[in-house]
Amino acid sequence: QNGLKRCLSEFKQQLAWVERLDVTLGQVSDPISQSASNKDAVDPENDFQREMSFYWQAQAAVLEALPRLRKLQVPTRRPDDYFAEMAKSDQQMQKIRQKLKSKQEAMERSERAKQLRAMRKYGKKVQNEILQRRQKEKKNMLNAVKKYQKGLSDKLDFLDEEQTSSQGNKKGSASQQIKKGPNAKRRYKNQKFGFGGKKKGSKWNTKESFNDVSSFRSKIAHSKGPRKGGKKALNKRPGKRARQKMKSRAR
Questions:
Q1: Please, how many CA atoms are within 13 Å of residue 36, restricted to the half-sphere of its CB?
Q2: pTM of the prediction?
Q3: What is the DSSP letter of 81?
Q4: What is the largest CA-CA distance in the chain?
Q5: Where is this region: Disordered (predicted)?
Q6: Cα(17)–Cα(75) distance, integer angstroms
Q7: Cα R_g (the chain), whole angstroms
Q8: Which of 41, 126, 189, 251 is 20 to 30 A away from residue 107, measured at CA?
Q9: 112 and 61 belong to one structural domain
Q10: 81 belongs to a structural domain
Q11: What's the CA angle centered on 50, arms 47 and 54, to 5 degrees?
């Protein structure tokens, strides 16, 4: 021990505190529970208590060193325009950014694929439910038809249900057509061609039309009246040879 003290006195230097910045404190109490953080209060096997005791010790040392530094006019706050070079280069940080970006894009793709799978699964489920409902309705209708054919039932309610279901599906479109009405092109075609129905053989004569002579005009039939075409027939343009003769006479 004496040898250690002698060696310490040989290389020990008498420097000012601002050059050494050493702070020695005794017991440090917990600022919350105000209990001394000595060896009996801190369990060394408990990581949380051990780390908190280190934190309280460092905090108390800082609180004691700051006033002494301010008294010696040593700046303790970083200036606003402070510039320090980063420990990692820009190339390394760029690689890290690209890696993080690719990882995020992969996560987004995976999430989108998961959503698409869920939507497909839900769509198939809905489609299966619709098909099952239709098959059930068809089966019920066939059973009702068989019962009616065999005379076991005299009700035709299944036909009414089918008509109401079909009318319910087309209710929206029919109401829109009634509200809007046909456009000008549709009205012209309806006026020209009619509204459907039988077209073939519509001009055939019947017994009533053959005996009906109310539209007969004797003057027109015996060429005593004006010719068909009216003014257009009278103002007929002369032929080419006649026009050439008329031009030669005019010369």
A1: 6
A2: 0.31
A3: T
A4: 162
A5: 158-251
A6: 15
A7: 54
A8: 126
A9: no
A10: no
A11: 135
